[in-house]
Each structure stands twice: as C-alpha cells, then as structure tokens.
Amino acid sequence: MKIPTLDEYSRKYDHVSFHREDGILQVTMHTGGSDLVWGFVPHQEMGYMFADIASDPENKVIIYTGAGSTFIHKEDLGGGKPDAKIWGEHVLPDAKRLLMNLLEIQAPMIAAINGPATVHAELGLLCDITLAADHTVFRDAPHYPSGLVPGDGVHVVWQALLGLNRARYFLMTGQELSAREALSLGVVNEVMPQTELLPRAWELARQIRRRPELTTRLTRETMLMHLKQQMLAQLPYGLALEGLAAADHWPDHFAAENIAKR
C-alpha cells in the first residue's frame, strides 16, 4: 500500500494549508487564505485530510489552527436542504469521518485556537493540548440555537469537558464562553494574545518532539481510548436524530430565509 506524502496531499484540499519542520506539521484552515467559512465542502475535506495526516509517518506532532482572527466562526451552507437520502449518503458519513479520523491520528495534537470558535469548536477541543487567543469565544451556534439537535459529536465532547448539567445549559441556551471562562472551566489549557499563540504552540511541539516517539504516540492513544469508545457508541445515533430535526426544520427555515432575501 502506498503511503501518502505531504507533497501529494498538500495539493488535495482547498481549505487547508500545511507547513512542516522537523516532523511538526502545522495545519491551517482557511477560505481563500483568510478566515475559514465552514460549509459542506470543508466538512467533507477535513475528514479525508485527517486520514491523510494519520497515514503519514513523517507527521510527529500536529499544530491545528485557523487563518485570520477566527478559528471557525462563519458558516455558509449555500441554502442547502439535505433530504434523508443526502443526509444518509453524505452528511452522516462525512460527520463520522470528520471526528473519527481526527481521533485516529496517533501523533499528538496541539490546537492553537486563534479566535472565536462557535462552529465545530470540538475539532480544536479534541486535541491533546488546547491553547486559545484571548479574544476567543466558544459557542455552539449551528445546532440547538439554529433549530437542530446537537448530535454530531458536540453532545459527547461538551459533556466530557463541562459535565452533564453545564453541558446541557451550554448547548440549549446558546451560552457563550470567553477564553478566560473556558480556562477556568478546564476547557482550554492556556490563554494568551493571538500574537503569542503559534510561537507557544511550536514551543510545546518541540518539547514533545524531545520525548520518545513511540511513547508519545501510545500516550495519546491511551488518553483517547475512553473518548473514542463514547464517540463510536453515540455519534451515529446523535447524527440520526440531528437528521430528523433537519428534515423537519430546514425546509421552513430556508424558505423563510430566501423570502427575507428578496
């Protein structure tokens, strides 16, 4: 089997750029070189991208960040209204691939959350070390506040980080957490000005590189075991419930949105 190389997969994705030094791979999400706008295309790309990263043995440590001043804060679904067939054949497998392939990366991951993370914040929070710029805010905007079940992994991740009661409040009220509040709750590990974020991420990555490589990979595997079991058990069911809610809510939602634009 041919193992993918960075030169090959770095040209495959429109919403990700890569830079690697001494086995440290910086992965930067973007749209046109600036802040990422989330949508169905990035949703699909990221899952395959995580698989390529996981398959490349030259990736020893991963730094995961966003371009501009936001991590994932903007979303454009293009007015799409997925029916049951599209949800089952595309949205559900893409969502499973997105999170499970991230969790299958054995190289330790450092998230450098460079600003507001109100869409799929869990992608950064599933990393082993999470740094946040001091202007970062966390929120789950696309799900319950937008009429959808928070079923595509956020129900697992936020309960693990906040506990049951705080997670339910966070998801069902649209609560916004500042970077400092997230630090006090144990959601992130360090908070700093954005200008210091990537230098600190690289400092930690180089520190990890000084440890035995196999020990480091197996440490990540050990620490993720329980979370992977939870995700395997709960992610497909949560996505199915989210799809039911989408089928009920989205047709009226997008119809009203289109009328408002006229």
For this structure, what is the CATH class?
A: Alpha Beta
Taken in chain order, the helices and strands follow as: HEEEHEEHEHEEHHEHEHH
Helix content estimate: 40-55%
CATH superfamily: 2-enoyl-CoA Hydratase, Chain A, domain 1
- Give the tally of β-strands: 10
User: What is the CA-CA span between the terminal residues?
Assistant: 53 Å
CATH topology: 2-enoyl-CoA Hydratase, Chain A, domain 1
% residues in beta strands: 5-15%
Low-confidence stretches: 255-262
Largest sheet: 6 strands, mixed
Rg (C-alpha, Å):
18 Å
Strand order of the largest sheet: 1-2-4-6-7-10
Number of domains: 1
The quaternary organization reads as single chain
Described by the principal axes of the CA atoms, the overall outline is globular
Mean pLDDT level: 93
CATH architecture assignment: Alpha-Beta Complex
Structural class: alpha/beta
Number of helices: 9
